[in-house]
Amino acid sequence: MTESQYYQKLKSIVSPYLPEDVSVDQIQADSHFIRELNINSANLVDIVLDVEDEFDIVLENEDMEAMQTVRDAMAIIERKRSV
Amino acid sequence: MERAEIINRLPYGEPFNFVEGLDKVDADGAEGFYTFKPGSEVFRGHFKDRAVIPGVLLTECCAQIGLVCLGIFLSGESGERKIAFALSSSEMEFLLPVFPGERVRVRSEKEYFRFGKLKCKVRMWNEKDQLVCRGILAGMQVKNNNG
């Protein structure tokens, strides 16, 4: 899977959890889930669970903590999938 | 963890404690009961001419028994102490009214407990075993520095 494919998939996972005042276009590689996309910690857990299902990986607490931005998430997904 | 220990760890006090007893708590869910005391101040205004337990209190009762008691049990299983839960979402349906003096039974079924978020299905029955409300509640584990 190419980086842009990861990005597109991740974008579609994240978009249903965006608050009303944040548009899909605001999801950029450097976007911080909590600070910039205004996603709360409860919804971030659901995003992580959807990521697990979509990419068929299992994430640990430290992955969750490291997943601050969209780019972080892509890196973690890529690393997990290559194991 | 013993059921009495779970009740002991609940952070609620009167008049906002909606757990009277627990019948069962395991890794998959919790079951308990509560009697809405007649004469509570709250019901005087809901409604002015006829007391009915407000839906928010039915939700609270479901959350305290179904979500928080289960959360305390699950946190205890992983060796954590001093844990509280903050309600993060609720989606409830109310099917029948509950009146002061009625005893209700709540049962929850865990959907998942991951990364500090506990999500469960909850159901509440009245004494006639009729389903009075059901829904999905989720809460986030918070570190409690006062406990």
UniProtKB/TrEMBL annotation, chain A:
Pfam families: PP-binding. Gene3D superfamilies: ACP-like. GO terms for molecular function: acyl carrier activity. Residues 1-81 form the Carrier domain. PROSITE patterns: CARRIER (PS50075). Pathway: Lipid metabolism; fatty acid biosynthesis. One of its GO terms (cellular component) is cytoplasm. Keywords: Cytoplasm, Fatty acid biosynthesis, Fatty acid metabolism, Lipid biosynthesis, Lipid metabolism, Phosphopantetheine, Phosphoprotein. SUPFAM superfamilies: ACP-like (SSF47336). 4'-phosphopantetheine is transferred from CoA to a specific serine of apo-ACP by AcpS. This modification is essential for activity because fatty acids are bound in thioester linkage to the sulfhydryl of the prosthetic group. The modification O-(pantetheine 4'-phosphoryl)serine is found at S41. It is found in: Cytoplasm. Carrier of the growing fatty acid chain in fatty acid biosynthesis. Belongs to the acyl carrier protein (ACP) family. This is Acyl carrier protein. It comes from Zeaxanthinibacter enoshimensis. The lineage of its organism: Bacteria, Pseudomonadati, Bacteroidota, Flavobacteriia, Flavobacteriales. The gene is acpP.
Automatic annotation (TrEMBL), chain B:
Keywords: Lyase. GO terms for molecular function: lyase activity. SUPFAM superfamilies: Thioesterase/thiol ester dehydrase-isomerase (SSF54637). The keyword Lyase applies. The keyword Lyase applies. PANTHER family: 3-HYDROXYACYL-[ACYL-CARRIER-PROTEIN] DEHYDRATASE. This is 3-hydroxyacyl-[acyl-carrier-protein] dehydratase. It comes from Zeaxanthinibacter enoshimensis. The lineage of its organism: Bacteria, Pseudomonadati, Bacteroidota, Flavobacteriia, Flavobacteriales.
